């Protein structure tokens, strides 16, 4: 059993010191002292490896003694190098260096030869005695270093001196029995590499603290957390192993029961502890406060912040802000109050764990005076707080959310899962995250306001188009009233009047439906193939009384187009023809024609009105709310072009001042020419 422990201890110590010796020049400052420290660590690793091989019978005993002598000489060199930094002009370090070098050389010679010298004074010089003197010399070097080094360097070297002093004292106790009785207790030799392994963390801290070494040992908090978890698990398993060892030696039913209960209980307790958020939080807090110069890994915290915002995509903006802030401060929940433009109070927009009974807080509420200072990152509430605690006793922290120095909201957070000591790092991190969350809330409010304004604009467009249609319908009804007195007795007029009224009623009902259901997405209609020439012919016939003429060419044209909403095309044609009639000086001066070529159908509306300038067509014609008519709304041309573009077409305009205007409605389609009529 002793052989197994010694082999294991030696190999582990050799591996640990080898890694430390490799890390020092790789991650530390390039200096002579750093290389000396790495040499001492490498010599210790070599000694531990030789001791492990010696226990296994793979090397000669003198190899271990020489490795131990080399180890002592290497640590002497390091102590002298540190002492020389503050006593370079003092002869002390030279005297100590000469004495230490002489002892180290003698130790190596006696270790290699196993010689014995009789001095004749009753003292025999041999390897154990020289090793004892070396240990005493190590204590002398450590004591002189502690007394002569400056305070700043003593702080960095203090832990190393403690470790070396303890090891030298151990060596003295180890060699005394061998000097007096020529016997070395086996336990001392077996325990030695384990003691060096225990001293290694003190050497690591010294390398990190020392300005001459500047070892930058970094490990992520996640790695340290999981490493600590593994260590705790290992301790539990060692306890189970100890119970098994007890059973092996003593046996019996009670011992077996004890082992089963201990193993099962430890395993369940470990799983429960690691699955509990409060326990994990306490472990993280302990690691952050004791193993790192900075409490937070800011790269990791910023990554967590972005992931938290994206993780809660199914929640509203205020809920995402609250949950993100709660995760940052390890709080199980809280309440978020937000003030928006035009509000005179802070409304509760999100809550978790508590706050469902809290109402809005007015801008003039006295509790907000505690957040008036812009430098406040958070308020940590005590139990005797008289402002916030009476309203929300569960509150632990009040975090203001400011955007451009304006308080747009604040959050009340529940007590954390594990007790936390908040310091300047927490304030800086919370202030940064709170400003980002405040900007997020403002941007969300801006996006919501923009969406609302777009809905209002869309509704205004529908109202404007409806007003234009109402104007046209009102014009038709007004013309009908004017002619009713003259032609009321005419049966044909009465039939036409009923048709006009029916058409007006249909238009009014359609307008009401558009205003009511315009915000609902319309189901796309399947395109239907229609003959545009027939539509124009029927439309011209209906408008014949107003002087509209459909001019056919010598051949009958079949102009086919796939139109999803033929009624929309007729409405656009209605707008254009009505404008042409109003612009024409006399009846019969509006002419419609249809032409089809190159996959395009062109419906031309020609009038003999005053015409328009090219500048007016380019700048004003299709802009909404622009008109030259006394009773116009300036929306007809704009709405007609919008309808045509929805159908996949467009509107083209040619006009000459004083000579009339031609407006062409263009549709995608095809044409088929029949034989000329006989």
From TrEMBL:
Record carries keyword Kinase: yes
Main enzyme class: transferase
Gene3D superfamilies per record: 3.30.450.40, Histidine kinase-like ATPase, C-terminal domain
Residue intervals passing through the bilayer: 6-26, 33-50, 62-84, 96-117, 129-146, 155-173, 193-211, 223-247, 253-274
Pfam families: GAF (PF01590), HATPase_c (PF02518)
Entry's EC annotation: 2.7.13.3
GO terms for MF: kinase activity
Keywords: ATP-binding, Kinase, Membrane, Nucleotide-binding, Transferase, Transmembrane, Transmembrane helix, Two-component regulatory system
Domain Histidine kinase per the UniProt entry, residue ranges: 465-671
Domain of life: Bacteria
Protein name: histidine kinase
UniProt organism field: Rhizomicrobium electricum
């Amino acid at each position: 059993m002793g052989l197994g422990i010694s082999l294991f201890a030696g190999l582990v110590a050799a591996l640990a010191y080898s890694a430390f010796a490799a890390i020092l020049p790789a991650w530390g400052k390039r200096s002579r002292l750093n290389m000396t420290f790495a040499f001492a660590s490498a010599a210790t690793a070599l000694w531990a490896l030789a001791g492990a091989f010696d226990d296994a019978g793979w090397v000669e005993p003198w190899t271990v003694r020489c490795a131990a002598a080399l180890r002592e000489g290497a640590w002497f060199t390091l102590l002298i190098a540190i002492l020389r930094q503050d006593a370079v002009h003092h002869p002390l370090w030279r005297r100590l260096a000469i004495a230490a070098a002489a002892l180290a050389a003698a130790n190596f010679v006696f270790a290699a030869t196993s010689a014995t010298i009789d001095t004749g004074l009753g003292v025999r010089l041999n390897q154990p005695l020289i090793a004892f003197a070396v240990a005493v010399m190590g204590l002398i070097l450590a004591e002189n270093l502690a007394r002569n080094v400056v305070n700043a360097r003593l702080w960095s070297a203090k832990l190393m001196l403690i470790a070396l002093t303890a090891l030298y004292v151990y060596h003295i106790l180890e060699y005394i029995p061998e000097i007096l009785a020529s016997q070395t207790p086996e336990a001392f030799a077996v325990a030695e590499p384990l003691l060096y392994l225990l001293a290694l963390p003190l050497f690591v801290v010294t390398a990190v603290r020392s300005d001459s070494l500047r070892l930058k040992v970094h490990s992520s908090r996640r790695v340290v957390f999981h490493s600590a978890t593994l260590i705790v698990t290992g301790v539990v398993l060692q306890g189970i192993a100890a119970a098994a060892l007890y059973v092996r030696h003593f046996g019996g039913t009670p011992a077996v029961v004890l082992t089963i209960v201990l193993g099962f209980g430890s395993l369940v307790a470990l799983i429960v502890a690691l699955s509990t958020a409060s326990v994990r939080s306490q472990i993280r807090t302990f690691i952050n406060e004791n193993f790192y110069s900075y409490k937070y890994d800011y790269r990791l915290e910023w990554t967590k912040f972005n992931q938290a915002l994206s993780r809660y995509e199914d929640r509203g903006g205020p809920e995402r802000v609250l949950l993100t802030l709660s995760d940052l401060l390890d709080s199980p929940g809280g309440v978020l109050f937000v003030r928006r433009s035009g509000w005179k109070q802070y409304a509760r927009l999100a809550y978790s764990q508590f706050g469902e009974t809290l109402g809005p807080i007015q801008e003039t509420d006295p509790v907000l005076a505690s957040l008036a200072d812009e430098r406040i990152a958070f308020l940590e509430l005590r139990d005797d707080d008289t402002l916030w605690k009476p309203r929300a006793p569960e509150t632990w922290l009040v975090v203001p959310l400011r955007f451009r120095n304006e308080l747009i909201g604040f959050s009340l957070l529940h007590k954390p899962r594990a007790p936390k000591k908040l310091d300047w790092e927490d304030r800086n991190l919370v202030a940064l995250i709170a400003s980002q969350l405040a900007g997020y809330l403002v941007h969300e409010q801006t996006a919501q306001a923009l969406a609302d304004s777009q809905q209002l604009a869309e509704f205004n467009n529908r109202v404007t188009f409806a007003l234009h249609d109402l104007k046209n319908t009102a014009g038709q009804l007004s013309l009908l009233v004017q002619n009713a007195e003259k032609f009321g007795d005419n049966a044909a007029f009465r039939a036409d009047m009923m048709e006009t009224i029916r058409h007006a009623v249909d238009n009014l009902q359609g307008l009401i439906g558009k205003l009511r259901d315009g915000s609902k997405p319309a189901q796309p209609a399947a395109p239907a193939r229609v003959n545009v020439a027939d539509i124009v012919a029927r439309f011209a016939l209906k408008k014949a009384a107003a002087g509209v003429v459909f001019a056919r060419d010598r051949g009958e044209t079949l102009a086919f187009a796939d139109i999803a909403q033929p009624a929309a095309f007729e409405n656009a044609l209605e707008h254009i023809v009505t404008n042409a009639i109003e612009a024409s000086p006399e009846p019969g001066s509006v002419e419609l024609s249809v032409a089809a070529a190159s996959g395009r159908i062109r419906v031309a509306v020609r009038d003999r009105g005053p015409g328009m300038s090219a500048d007016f067509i380019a700048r004003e014609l299709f802009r909404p709310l622009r008109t030259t008519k006394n009773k116009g709304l300036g929306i007809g041309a704009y709405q007609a072009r919008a309808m045509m573009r929805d159908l996949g077409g467009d509107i083209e305009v040619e006009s000459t001042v004083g000579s009339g205007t031609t407006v062409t409605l263009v549709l995608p389609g095809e044409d088929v020419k029949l034989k000329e009529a006989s």
